[in-house]
Amino acid sequence: MAQTAKKINFMISNDVRKEFEKLVPPGQRSKVVNEALRRELILIKRERLTHRLLVLRDSGKKLSSGEIVELLKKDRTRTKSL
To answer: Which of 60, 63, 66, 79 is packed most tightly, with the most Cβ within 10 A?
Structure first.
């Protein structure tokens, strides 16, 4: 299935615009913006997931290394029988 594109309008500061126009040729600008946004969105998602994991870690039951090993052994035994 072909991907579609949509034209959107947003504001950028003049210094960024000038640098962008100086460094990126007109035929490549959409591609550069799309790739930059993709990378930034991935970072935002990672930050949110990291935050969620840290909250879960802080709210979860604290286990010793021995308890973790025992739970993993039980889980492995359980999954082998499935």
So the answer is: 63
Integer Cα distance of 36 and 23 in angstroms: 14
CA dist., res. 48 & res. 42, Å (int): 10
Cα 50 from Cα 44, distance rounded (Å):
10
Whose tokens are 């970072």? That residue is 43
Virtual torsion, Cα 14, 19, 25, 28, nearest 10 deg: -80
Domain map of the chain by residue range? 14-80
> Per residue in 40-79, pLDDT tens?
999 999 999 999 999 998 898 889 999 999 999 999 887 6
63: Cβ–Cβ under 8 A, 6 or more apart, which residues?
A: 71
Tokens at residue 8, please? 């959107």
